[in-house]
Design brief:
- Two copies of one chain form a homodimer.
- The first copy, chain A, is α/β, with parallel strands linked by helices.
- In chain A, strand 10, helix 10 and strand 11 form a beta-alpha-beta unit.
- In chain A, the strands form four sheets. Chain A has a six-stranded parallel sheet with strand order 2-1-3-5-7-13, sandwiched between helices. In chain A, strands 9-8-10-11 form a four-stranded parallel sheet, sandwiched between helices.
- The N terminus of chain A is likely disordered.
- Chain A is elongated.
- Chain A folds into three domains: 46 residues, Orthogonal Bundle (434 Repressor (Amino-terminal Domain)); 128 residues, 3-Layer(aba) Sandwich (Rossmann fold); 127 residues, Rossmann fold (3-Layer(aba) Sandwich).
- In chain A, 41% of the residues lie in helices and 16% in strands.
- The termini of chain A are far apart.
- In chain A, helix 1 crosses helix 3, helix 2 packs across helix 3 and helix 7 crosses helix 8.
- At the A-B interface, helix 4, helix 5, strand 2 and helix 6 of A face helix 4, helix 5, strand 2 and helix 6 of B.
- The first copy, chain A, binds a DNA duplex through helix 2 and helix 4.
- Chains A, B: It comes from Propionibacterium acidifaciens F0233.
- Chains A, B: This is Small molecule-binding regulator domain protein.
- Chains A, B: One of its GO terms (molecular function) is DNA-binding transcription factor activity.
- Chains A, B: Keywords: DNA-binding, Repressor, Transcription, Transcription regulation.
DNA sequence: CTGTTAGCGCATTCAC
DNA sequence: GTGAATGCGCTAACAG
């Protein structure tokens, strides 16, 4: 019986409704309440009492205490997320996708913002202490992340990151496919004289996109100029100008990202070269505040789908399925706009 | 004693370390472990035993189970967040700020993505079932949000949203101050012939920025053209062109946001009007992929500070402090770049 | 068909 | 100084 008042502890300011309150109101036992509310009552509890329980629960506004249930089940239905993506302008879509997919299975996201490997370890520790059922690590922008001590205590996934040792399960955008698709956009429009402005080699994405690009070129038996450029509008402006003023101007340029593409388009405008009339341009990222504005054909980053896939994998692993090491590639959507013209 | 094996329940796949394990390893009682690890041991537990406990805890990798603690304390140290901001490109900073400030006080964010009033109520219910200590509602982009039934069960704050009934505590950007500052940027540079391109009146921000603008103009005893424009680059392009081709061209234009400003600058370029030489332009939002690129002077959105303030207020409320109804205005940072020139 | 019991892991009395 | 007992709210097993 819990009729005795709390012993010596500070009295709760405003006690919440518990299953005991519902049981008393419905004139049944707590087990009956649990049975009814969890759908295990049929053939066990009389229809009459079932109704009484439901009515009482509703009237009282009873909400089963998930903390108590978690303690008992040794399962919190909580997914821990360590991320840096909320800071940046993009990538929030991963959180959105993850949240939504998780909610569909009655799971919630416990989010920690962290930057730097040291803090990551602490963050994971904090999440583990909260008894999260699984872990998602999303440091942002396809970086490398080497799992440490704490990672591995529960099922865990790397999101938009790769494990250099190849032991972890990673969900990443298909950069090779994206690079291939970007180039294919130009190839399929009949272009053969193509230049590629790549990002910085330090970034994982750069090499992969380049590989996809080369694959596409090899499919048509062609070759093209590859220029290490950078990620910013200035870089695109500089290299774009050089390309357009040079001896043999390409008819199409594949850019490292949309900012670079914007720079190229600006250079073209200055040089009096019409896009897409005389020059076709392809970007990457589908940057929300650039690509649509510039009517730029580009390759999107499937952030939301990545978040969804990560949660799906994680939930399966929590359910006991084995987590395969390696990378799960999420296809990058091709966004066709008006900056490419057939020739 | 818990020496008897679990009764009939599915055995935990990999039992975690509990305080009992630590106690046994250190040769003391569980209470001793609790006392030591919570800093209540001095003068109660021998230094020798204290050391033994700490050593054992470290060696075993003991992490106190926060779920159990939450159940006992009736306090989860969890802050529920209902938001839509992760979807959009901006506003993620609010989550970042909130996460960081919360973490400083050993609190974590439980995030639910929701759009639409109906789902909000459900989301809050789910969060309440998780026994969150407080609630933050951040529907995004300064909209109106009327608290429903569930809101109010625990301390709650509206973030980047206002309560039309004025009952809730809201944390919002100081839009009046921002509008004032934007105009002041031009006024202080000596401009008197100023045009204002406002956003759509349906948005709360529009009216407030306008009020700030008018306040600034009244300070110098001036008046100016106010033109309802919109939020996009096209709108800026259209209205900018009209203004520049018109009879008396202004020397400065305050824009609804950075996208509109970009449109205006584009119109200026087309009309052969030099910015800032012949025309000064001010934007709003400090849009990360526009403002810096265009060297645009603008007013920032203090997203991160807002998230921080919301958590601070919430934690204070959870600690027992009264939550004052009304709006807490977070100052909007003035970002001076090169698009304004003195005349 | 119902009510009682036990225990999830923790912190806190209160006897020893 | 320490250890046994208690209860947070819940559910599953078991005895009535």
């Amino acid at each position: 019986m819990r009729t005795t008042p709390g012993t010596g502890r500070a009295a709760p300011t405003n006690r919440r409704i518990t299953s005991y309150d519902v049981a008393r109101a419905a004139g049944v036992s707590r087990s009956a309440v649990s049975l009814v509310l969890n759908g295990r009552a049929d053939g066990v509890i009389s229809a009459e009492n079932q109704h009484a329980v439901r009515a009482a629960a509703k009237r009282l506004g009873y909400r089963p205490n998930r903390v108590a249930r978690s303690l008992r089940d040794r399962r919190t239905h909580l997914l821990g997320v360590v991320t840096d993506v909320t800071s940046g302008p993009y990538g929030g879509g991963m959180i959105t996708g993850a949240t939504i997919r998780a909610a569909e299975s009655d799971h919630l996201l416990l989010v920690m913002d962290a930057r730097g490997r040291q803090q990551d370890e602490e963050a994971i520790g904090a999440l583990l202490a909260r008894q999260v059922d699984g872990l998602i690590i999303a440091p942002g922008s396809l970086c490398e992340w080497r799992p440490g001590e704490a990672f591995g205590q529960v099922p865990g996934i790397l999101l938009d990151a790769t494990d250099p040792d190849g032991r972890a399960t990673c969900v990443v955008s298909d950069e090779v496919g994206g690079g291939h698709a970007a180039t294919r956009l130009l190839l399929d429009a009949g272009h053969r004289d193509i230049a590629l402005l790549t990002g910085l080699p330090a970034q994982v994405a750069t090499g992969r996109r380049l590989a996809g690009h080369e694959l596409a070129m090899s499919e048509v038996g062609g070759a093209c100029r590859v220029i290490t450029c950078g990620w910013d509008i200035d870089d695109g402006l500089r290299e774009g100008a050089r390309l357009l003023d040079g001896p043999d101007r390409p008819t199409g340029i594949v850019c490292a990202n949309d900012r670079v593409a914007a720079g190229v388009m600006l250079a073209a405008a200055r040089a009096g070269v019409d896009v897409p009339g005389e020059l076709s341009v392809v970007g990457y990222d589908d940057d929300p505040s650039i690509a649509a504005q510039l009517d730029l054909s580009t390759i999107g980053l499937p952030h939301r789908a990545m978040g969804e896939r990560a949660v799906e994998l994680l939930l399966a692993a929590i359910a006991g399925q084995r987590l395969e090491p390696g990378e799960l590639l999420v296809p990058a959507p091709v966004v066709e706009r008006g900056s490419v013209r057939a020739r």
